[in-house]
Specification:
Layout: H1 5-8, E1 14-21, H2 27-35, E2 40-47, H3 62-73, E3 79-82, H4 86-90, H5 92-106, E4 109-111, H6 113-124, E5 128-133, H7 137-148, E6 153-159, H8 165-169, H9 173-184, E7 191-194, H10 205-212, E8 216-218, H11 219-231
Parallel strand pairs: 1-2, 1-3, 3-4, 5-6, 5-7, 7-8
Helix pairs in contact: 3-5, 6-11
Amino acid sequence: MTTAPDVLMPAAPHLLSTILPSANTVVERTTIAMLRGLPVAPLFTRIAKRGATDPSPDRHDVPALLDAAELLADARPDVIVLSAGKGAVIGLDHDRALVAGITARTGIAADTPGLALLRALRLLGLTRIALIGPHGRDYNERAARGLAAEGIETVAQASLGIADNLGFAAVGDEAVVAMARQVARAAGVQAIIAWNTNCAAAPLAASLEAELGLPFLDATALGIWGGLGVAGIAARPGAAWGRLFTLENRG
């Protein structure tokens, strides 16, 4: 007995495309897992980001990102997402300018985890967060300053001091859970934000929310949620991936 072709490869009338840093090994796995069973196929392209050095630490490499967006646009996706948390670190006006530039260049809607985070927190009615991630404390502090400019107060943080991109991806569930539990004890925390798209925190969201009683928002998941929203795609991964995917998001 053979399996029907449409069972082996279901139709995917929607395309969610993503730009990610070249050393990132988490975004694709997370996106494929989240979109499994949905009428949405993922597309990916990369921009150079190697080791611990960012050649443009205070801005986006806009020419490279626009070139990457144009490559994705050849496939006519519904949306183009930059899956990186850098916007919060350098200021989310950089993300706003970037998504406007992508749409102006390609005619396709665009989004970032940082802009999606602002929308998610607004829907949740929350303004006080804790930041966690595998990077150094200075990264969290810069992200906290960027988010403060948007009216979001960071009241706690936890980090692992890792500097290398591949090192981020090697962080296991236990370390993420420990950081989440640590910041959940801080006074005033309303939500926990895992702010690194090369750290596989997304599958832990639902279990940590059940344990800690706080929304747990992962940067990679935010990019996917945001991209689906700005594209007007109704399909969602569902509550198994956390409270984020129960929120109505129209971009």
